[in-house]
From TrEMBL, chains A, B:
GO terms for molecular function: ATP binding; histidine-tRNA ligase activity. NCBIfam families: hisS (TIGR00442). One of its GO terms (cellular component) is cytoplasm. SUPFAM superfamilies: Class II aaRS ABD-related, Class II aaRS and biotin synthetases. Pfam families: HGTP_anticodon (PF03129), tRNA-synt_His (PF13393). InterPro entries: aa-tRNA-synth_II, aa-tRNA-synth_II/BPL/LPL, Anticodon-bd, Anticodon-bd_dom_sf, His-tRNA-ligase, HisRS-like_core, HisRS/HisZ. Belongs to the class-II aminoacyl-tRNA synthetase family. Residues 35-355 form the Aminoacyl-transfer RNA synthetases class-II family profile domain. This is Histidine--tRNA ligase. It catalyses: tRNA(His) + L-histidine + ATP = L-histidyl-tRNA(His) + AMP + diphosphate + H(+).
């Protein structure tokens, strides 16, 4: 990709697709992420792409608008109401899955899930209508250890470091502090407050104040408190000092602050060079189901690009689908969002155009049956091998190998076998036995 | 799964989901299939789940009815016409992909694709609304070598053998013979004839005759010819003899017969024990786009179960999306259909419930920080390691390891390290160095 910005050009706006050499890199990423998640004992699952509308809806105002419902094409135009829809994240489907599969699972249930999600939003840089999310979550019965809040963050950091995506800034908060702020402001709960303050980076102070007044009935002092609250950022000391200065203290604020400060202190030791992991009370994430820690991460080099990693703790999500309380905590890595950004900034090295390692080629003296028999023999050594059928001229076969980036061409001319290294151009006598030995 | 039939029980009818230990087997299958396809030089791609309705529609009467269109939930009830829909196979999307990416690809373009597809059909045994297909196709410019007709079949046979799915019967025909039959019967082309004869196994002779009369205007002699035609099955000799006996010969019939008989003769040598690869002129597949060889495969032990593998040659599919002619041939392995059948017949060995190899455990003397530091050290040797936080009692930790099938528990008691083999129960002194050496 030679340092030139790659223009992403999709057949349908918002629905990414890649050439084989780019897909090869994406596959390596998926494999590497799976390795990291498995190294911490997380098992892979997949859930259907589809859930009932009832399962998906009412989890946050922005996402509700973006749900893609399914209708059989034959029924379009009929006044049917949609019952099924494509999932927009992997957290809600997993909560439903845990409720359904409860009797078949051992708790704490630690799973990773790497699947496509869909949101009918306006496509723009980093925002797609179809994208792959890589999620890790742990769900337990009755309570889920606070240690997992740290484990999630640690795994995300390890994963992003291994993917070599460049420096990343994590911002962490705790919804309990937001709930405590709501109590302090005389509001019944923190849901609507969190929804509004989640927009603090996008809205002007004027617009934010207007929403706080009209939707929550806050007065000027309350609005000031909210705005100051959102500016509290930094390490454990900065968070504690900031909250003290604001003069907010109640059981929720104190519990949230302690959890957040402990977490920040704990993960500091696993922070790689160049990464930032800060508290930031403005972070609340757009989903209503978070109840504890919330995470968000961005590229340090592209601060205006949307968040590349996010998650949090949810105490009551599974409980919506079954009677028992099964709290969880998880983090989601926005694979497509990260991958396409590095791709368009030419920060990725392209992969292989083909998995073929050896092209069996020859002049007119080589019959198709001979070529096939030899290819099968070489394949049996564990190599990926192909033949270009119906192409008698050797130069065309060599050009094909060159165009596809096939590293070796096994050339048979008048019964003489030679292996040509396409990188160095060196050509030398070869036998299947010698080839097999060279791979062992 | 101990020889007992597993009842598949999904949250939403027609949308499969599996427990982690079953998903583990499905993942191994996907990896194994990828290895087979790569060993023949096929590169992986993925296409979006979504195509335009225009791209997907009008490829076959049955499938058109089953297309799932996407509508934003907010727009349900409005009289909008759907523009986007979920793909029902991977052939049409790949043809569209090749047209779009034409300038970025090297031909012959050999790709494999393992993705979910969706069809809004009535769920029943082997028929799901969401399912994973594993497709191999080769698409070339102007012509695609007939050798690939054999390579597809060979790869499918190798793949199914490696998956150890039991004996399979492949039925192969060639659409050109069907086209020739249409000419012989005085019909303009073979499309509608193929659609009707595709139902020969499902419809009574009476019902079939009725459709041939009303939809194609065939007389009794024509109907008899069709019914005799559909009975022509077997090896190259049986096919040639059968067509001679029917007295049909014209350029299409002869070209199709030669291609089919050559193919059957060629693949005979790679046929594994227990597998059948037969010609069968009744096979035409439900898609209108096939123009040459057509394949279909079924379990020999479950002859009434739907086809588990299918495909064919299409000369004009890519041409619908660009001006140039790019013919192709491919075969699709119905992963979900095969997998769920073996699962429900208890013919699969369950996989791992967790990837964890070592649980770090201890009595009350072990601190969380010590456990984490040790887990990180063991993880650095390449092992998958976890800790069960906040569980002080060792018996609970051992029970957890046992329930999840974790093979080793690293037990620390009063600073003494022992590794317990959960299968044998043997427990012996261990160090990280000794553990690393045992894995090397």
């Amino acid at each position: 990709m030679a340092g030139v910005k790659t223009k992403l050009n999709f057949a349908i706006s918002g629905f990414p697709e890649f050439t084989p050499e780019v897909r090869d890199v994406e596959r390596r990423w998926l494999s590497l992420l799976a390795d990291v998640f498995e190294s911490y004992g997380y098992a892979n699952i997949e859930t259907p792409s589809v859930e009932t509308v009832q399962t998906l809806a009412s989890k946050g105002e922005d996402v509700d608008k973006e749900i893609y419902a399914l209708t059989r094409l034959a029924a379009i135009g009929e006044t049917t109401s949609a019952k099924l829809a494509l999932h927009y994240d992997l957290t809600v489907p997993t909560a439903r899955y845990v409720a359904k599969q409860h009797g078949n699972l051992t708790f704490p249930f630690k799973r990773f899930q790497m699947q496509r999600c869909w949101r009918g939003e306006r496509p723009q840089e980093g925002r797609y209508r179809e994208f792959t999310q890589c999620d890790i979550d742990v769900i337990d019965q009755d309570t889920v250890s606070l240690s997992y809040d740290a484990e999630m963050l640690e795994m995300a950091v390890v994963a992003l470091t291994r993917l070599n995506v460049g420096p990343v800034k994590f911002q962490v908060s705790n919804r309990k502090i937001m709930d405590g702020l709501a109590t302090h402001l005389g509001l019944p709960d923190g849901t609507l407050l969190a929804r509004i303050l989640d927009k603090v980076e996008k809205l002007s102070t004027e617009k934010l104040s207007e929403r706080l007044t009209t939707e929550l009935g806050l007065d000027a002092a309350g609005i000031d408190t909210c705005i100051s609250f959102c500016k509290i950022k930094g390490g454990p000391d900065a968070i504690a000092t900031g909250l003290d200065a604001l003069g907010i203290s109640n059981p929720d604020v104190d519990a949230g602050r302690d959890a957040l400060c402990n977490l920040l202190a704990r993960v500091e030791k696993s922070r790689p060079k160049g990464f930032i992991i800060d508290g930031d009370l403005a972070i609340s994430r757009g989903f209503d189901y978070y109840t504890g820690v919330v995470y968000e991460a961005r590229f340090i080099d592209f601060p205006d690009y949307p968040s590349i990693c996010a998650g949090g703790r949810y105490e009551n999500l599974v409980g919506q689908f079954m009677k028992r309380k099964l709290p969880g905590v998880g983090i989601s890595i926005g694979l497509t969002r990260i991958f396409t950004k590095l791709l368009s900034e030419s920060l990725l090295e392209t992969g292989r155009r083909t998995p073929t390692e050896v092209l069996v080629a020859g002049d007119e003296s080589l019959t198709a049956a001979e070529a096939e028999a030899l290819a099968a023999e070489i394949r049996a050594t564990g190599a990926n091998v192909e033949i270009l059928p119906d192409v008698p001229r050797l130069d065309k076969q060599l050009k094909y190998a060159n165009d596809k980036g096939i590293p070796y061409v096994w050339i048979i001319r008048d019964g003489v076998h030679q292996l040509k290294d396409m990188t160095s151009g060196v050509q030398q006598a070869i036998t299947v036995e010698a080839f097999a030995a060279s791979r062992a």
